[in-house]
Amino acid sequence: MEINLSMPSSLLDFQDVSKIFVDSKFRKIQSLENINFSAHQGEFIVIIGPSGCGKSTILRLAAGLDKPTSGKVLYHGKPIQEPDRQRGLVFQSYSVFPWLTVRENIAFGLNKSNSRSNEEKLSQWLSFTGLNEFADAYPKTLSGGMRQRVALARTMIVEPELLLLDEPFGALDEPTRKSMQALLLKAIAGSGCSVLLVTHDISEALILADRIILMSSLPGRILDIFIPPLNDSRTRDHFITPDFKSLYDEILERFPVQVIGE
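RE: above sequence
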């Protein structure tokens, strides 16, 4: 089933994208099949689906870390050839440099020629993420949630146009996860930054997304696209409402179940 959401002036376009990998035994594994969707300025898209369905591959293609086997991945209408600072990527694992302090990690991508502006931005992000007291600490001394705050700040400080998030809160405990969801929404508010986030968590998708893309099992195809109800405050309190409960149940019912051993 092909779902093409292409619209004029889209930021990111996947056009009939398929991806095949070759494993260690030289077998061809099809990760993605005929993926079609577009992301627009300021839009928050969440991709959900079972493990191994190609969700992370979509992010890697959007980041320029991989190339499609067939089809096109376009950014502002042009094929993506390589990584670019305008497409910032945050991984699930705590992607910070252990040999750098918090301050040095966050400032890593800044243009070194404008030191005054850099200091102002660094001060703002240290304050925003609540890391002022830990500015000179090394990542090994920080909690998982704090390290993800560092990773988010390091990515956002360069003002990317597209933020790519690969299950960034998956390893966090529930209270920290909720806190990071709120921090993420606050970080992108008013920035015009578009977001493409991968998660297994249907609740997280409903809280964060303007649009939810549901993927099939391998090879990954788009099964359906859902539009969550208007959710200005974006909190779990919305799940007591009939609209949210109904959509949650609908997505859960359609969510592919992997059979162990298949």
